[in-house]
Amino acid sequence: GRYSLTEDITVEIRTGAQNEELNLLVIKDGQAYVETATCPDGICSKHKPISREGESIVCLPHKVVITVYAENEKDAPDIVV
Question: Is 63 exposed, middle or buried (0-12, 13-18, 19+ CB in 10 A)?
Fold first, then answer.
């Protein structure tokens, strides 16, 4: 998925053979963070919010990478999951 940091949104990221794994991505006030995750260690949900180009949150057990990037300098940063 691709989401703008300028719009507040909550996104369920489901992975696994039967979509049983969950990372709940929250974009709010220009920042993105994982509010909750069903992975065993939960490191991704303890990560500080990200908002600058090149910053990432990674959930290795679920194979999820959340990264901030801008297509060009005029665009607002986006989140790619």
Answer: exposed
CA–CA separation, 20 and 5 (whole Å): 27
The structure tokens listed for 64 are: 């999820």
Residues of the chain whose pLDDT is less than 70? Answer: 71-80
**If residue 46 lies in a helix (H) or strand (E), which one and from where to where?**
helix 43-46
Residue 10: name the closest of 32, 27, 29 by CA: 27
Please provide residue 77's backbone torsions phi and psi, each rounded to the nearest 5 degrees. -60, 145
The DSSP line for 24-45 is EEEEETTEEEEEEE-SSS-HHH
| pTM of the entire predicted model | 0.86
